[in-house]
Amino acid sequence: MQTSTNTSYRFSNRVGNIPKSFIREILKITAQPDVISFAGGLPNPASFPIEAIRQATSKVLSNDGANVLQYAPSEGYMPLRQYIADRYARKGMQVSAHEILITNGSQQGLDLIGKVFINEGDNVILEKPSYLGAIQSFSAYQPSFLTVPLLDDGVDTLELDELLKNKDAKLFYAIPNFQNPTGISYSEIKRKQVTESILQSQTLLVEDDPYGDIKFTDKEYAPIKKYVKDRGILLGSFSKIISPGMRMGWIVAAPEIIEKLLLAKQASDLHSNYFTQRVIYQFLMDNNLDDHIAKIIDLYKTQKEYMINCMKQHFPDEVRFTNPEGGMFIWLTLPSLMSSYVLLDHAAKEKLAFVPGKVFYLDDAVNNTLRINYSNSNFDEIEKGVKILGRIIKTLISKTNISVLEINP
Amino acid sequence: MQTSTNTSYRFSNRVGNIPKSFIREILKITAQPDVISFAGGLPNPASFPIEAIRQATSKVLSNDGANVLQYAPSEGYMPLRQYIADRYARKGMQVSAHEILITNGSQQGLDLIGKVFINEGDNVILEKPSYLGAIQSFSAYQPSFLTVPLLDDGVDTLELDELLKNKDAKLFYAIPNFQNPTGISYSEIKRKQVTESILQSQTLLVEDDPYGDIKFTDKEYAPIKKYVKDRGILLGSFSKIISPGMRMGWIVAAPEIIEKLLLAKQASDLHSNYFTQRVIYQFLMDNNLDDHIAKIIDLYKTQKEYMINCMKQHFPDEVRFTNPEGGMFIWLTLPSLMSSYVLLDHAAKEKLAFVPGKVFYLDDAVNNTLRINYSNSNFDEIEKGVKILGRIIKTLISKTNISVLEINP
């Protein structure tokens, strides 16, 4: 029998468009236990409700194992969809369980939205910088990306409005709460301005909200979906409030959109893991989710404040950083001529990792930013890591004679 | 604030290409408890290892909960990939764990393969009839489908060879073991002939094998992947041998293909449910999979034989049916002028369901076939359902005066 020697494969054009995840590459490096990692976006495992999940699993398998392990509807487990709808209602946004589709984390939500909306060459607007995972998901459907800068209180709404008026984009993708990577949140005014612009356009808002519940402030922001209604699609996730390894999230959208997403969901993997849906629902029935979230908030808020204090103490004045009101990330801006890749090279030698900001941009414009995660490091690691970073930055400044005048405006 | 009245959405072209799953529509109907359903492709819940899964879950959460609930590598849990590779090795096919990617059932495998290989308009060859889920997955990437008839011992290899020579297809999708929907298996000769044809072409074989372990015979067939080597991609699944609700399967492919599939996997949902991967692996460590599969085989084999005997007893001679050596389905061919949709209308009134064969075809050529599932009905249901079918078919024959001469050749 002939043996094949042909190993050149004819891949689709789209696969060349999907950027590699630099973050997941870094995560491989940081898998070593003695590395201090500010790189990932990992929840703190101290926040995982391990014993409660064990009990919930035992219960659903004992009570209804034959169904729990069987094929299930593509839409997701109806009581879980109803729970999610009820939770939005308690927060002031009325949605029906039929407007909710269960997905494998928000990431699959992004993929399904790309599949259902994006034709090759369609314009898609992103915040600048934006979540790399969304860029990956959408890229597979070969859109043309347009970007709008993030300001301290949310997207630059004047630029957004210009783009919406002139570029006929299919989608505007935004993370209005404690954005990844910057930690920035949209003010109420910005939410209203975005709403006005969206409603006057043909563009749909895709609002990603994985961090909204991890909130260190009493301020209450409604999802923009509440204002734009059927012109918005909202993504939610259990990853940051229960467990990311369980890959469970959801999409909220108008029934006409859900119908198409459901078709794409069936074609993609029939339905989300039903065993896990039932375990999560049982956990939610037997435990108070808000009490659980309060513990996560306590933990992350303390870590964030400790890190901010360390940064104030150990960083030179030339470094600017955000002070997020929730979520998991701080965004650093170095002096304009300093490269965060050079900083990473030095940091890696001292077993410290973070993500250079450039990976969150579609162009090569910005080299002097970085994303720092605080949710998955303890006080010792935070202090030690920030000290190392501060020392390297000071050395780099002195070496290159970068003066205060050269800081980014 | 302006209220949106615009509810016309601009969906992608591809979403219009994905056919609705008629099967999943039927499953909604058959969700009623008093319906006899030969329609689904559901494993028998009596075969689910509920207590063993409960114990495995308890163990992994108690021993390693902090990792089990955390984000994980996109490739899948390495020991699970190694287990799958070792199992193939025991069956005579050497593959490395690095050639295995964990997916959300085989269905996601099909989607990822479509994403990574199919450009709009590319030729993809299917068996005729073929698995509807594969047609759905591939359709999202807008190929041109070509089909090759299935004969009693596998695909028509002369027609296949012609197509491979003249149509430069990207993929040939086949289910060589106990095919869905027909129950047909490829003979060893056909496997070798397919191998020769594939190796002389630029086309990749996509070999779907969800049923291969559910085997009622001592005959041993190697996956065609073993012969075509790097020119083949093999899909496997735990759905039929452990639990479909856990949505866990895998792809076996050359490292160069796995690299691209991995990129698509990251973009699609980061990684498969890690909690479930760990539970399944623990189950596999603490239980003998082959012993478990032997119990499933006993169950399904008995049910299949009972159903075949009922069919022999209650069906008129004009009805032909396959007698599969494994898997979950029997394929019925009615007299050529009889419509299986008309049969379904009558059957549904007597609370009996099955799937008309037409949904497994891409053209409208065949109206007189149907798929019957035997894995998920007990003896009483099988006997009652086959009696009903036999009675309706006889009535339809007498009404339409269809003679034996009009049976399909």
Largest Cβ-defined interface: A-B, 97 and 97 residues
**Gap from first CA to last CA of chain A:** 69 Å
CATH topology annotation of the largest domain in chain A: Aspartate Aminotransferase, domain 2
> What does the oligomeric state look like here?
homodimer
Strand order of the largest sheet of chain A: 2-9-8-7-6-3-4-5
**What proportion strand of chain A?**
5-15%
Number-wise, the strands of chain A total: 14
Whole-angstrom Rg of chain A? 22 Å
> From the 3D coordinates, which CATH architecture of the largest domain in chain A would you assign?
3-Layer(aba) Sandwich
CATH class label of the largest domain in chain A: Alpha Beta
Number of separate domains of chain A: 2
Q: Kindly name the structural category of chain A.
A: alpha/beta
The biggest beta sheet of chain A reads: 8 strands, mixed
The SSE string of chain A, one letter per element, is: HEHHEHEHEEHEHEHEEHHHEEHEEEH
Q: What is the CATH H-level superfamily of the largest domain in chain A?
A: Type I PLP-dependent aspartate aminotransferase-like (Major domain)
Percent in helix of chain A: 40-55%
Which term fits the overall shape of chain A? globular
Mean pLDDT over the full residue set of chain A? 93
User: What's the helix count of chain A?
Assistant: 13
